[in-house]
Design goal:
two-stranded antiparallel ribbon; elongated
Length: 77
């Protein structure tokens, strides 16, 4: 008899998800890349429009986000 495995996503990028509704701790945000993945390559990352700012924003996480950071919600562009 073959079994089945159910894969349940931890975070989704659905339109129903409230913008910036997760805390950094909830999604294990870190200020450095993980396994070659970084916020600047994520579909939820929004770079700052300020010329002297080195942080951006995220559709999912609250607060300033480093383009070199990473979290569990990473989704490559």
């Amino acid at each position: 008899m073959l079994g089945s495995i159910a894969l349940i996503p931890i975070a989704t990028h659905s339109p129903a998800a409230k913008a910036a509704s997760a805390t950094k701790g909830m999604l294990h945000y870190q200020e450095s890349p993980k396994d070659g993945k970084s916020c600047s390559d994520c579909s939820s990352f929004r770079p700052s429009t300020a010329p002297d700012s080195d942080t951006g924003a995220c559709k999912i996480l609250e607060g300033p986000i480093s383009p070199h950071g990473w979290c569990m919600a990473f989704s490559r562009r």
